What does this fold into?
Amino acid sequence: MDLKLIFEKPKTMTDNKTHYCPGCGHGVIHRLVAEVIDELGIREKTVGIAPVGCAVNAYEYWDIDMCEAAHGRVAAVATGIKRARPDLIVFGYQGDGDLAAIGLAETLHAANRGENITIIFVNNATYGMTGGQTAPTTLPGQITKTSPYGRDVSTEGYPMRISEMIAMLEAPAYVERVAVVSTETINRTKQAIKRAFKLQLEGKGYSFVEVLSGCPNEWHLNPVEANRWIEENMMKYFPLGVYKDRYGIVKV
It folds into this structure.
């Protein structure tokens, strides 16, 4: 009986062991990005931008050209590369501390200009790599290293809904929020990433995919509990869905 191979490691993934903590969503998202790049046949012309944060070593896991950006400057670096080489597929991969705090200005202005780049935004509601401090996306009442009694919105403000902010701008082509907590949400995340890359291939402009992802280590939960926490807490404040699609169906 001949056996047919139906599942294997993406060619865009290296054989390196990841440094991510058990239950972290980054590894899952890395694989989805690699699968999409393979399926679209764009590995030889794709450039990824790695930030400062948990994904700082992303270049060790993707077998594509990578560029390191200073903290928060992914959108600026991606813009420069894409304008210099418009034939390339350029994407940024950022966490909430990198994108929504120090990198917010670059993020919004690149989106507002409609740069033909793709940004994958991993939202785990904390500064994961630097010790679990309060992030721009930390939920009200959420305990972190710098909010030991829970985030107090009267002094620290409310969590920033980045997808909604970007979707309000005129220029962006596509904005969607997804998650990696179940087979269903993981499959949807892959579809969103592929949609974003396809729009860039077609020259349609700026695309943004926000992924809700767990940080069990800094949340002090096991991986199963972390996924449940996302479903019961993060998804209520950050609802999943397509927030803008200028070339498809708009669903808010």
Remarks:
- Strands lie at 46-50, 65-68, 89-95, 118-123, 174-179, 207-212, 241-245.
- The domain at 26-245 is CATH 3.40.50.970 (Rossmann fold).
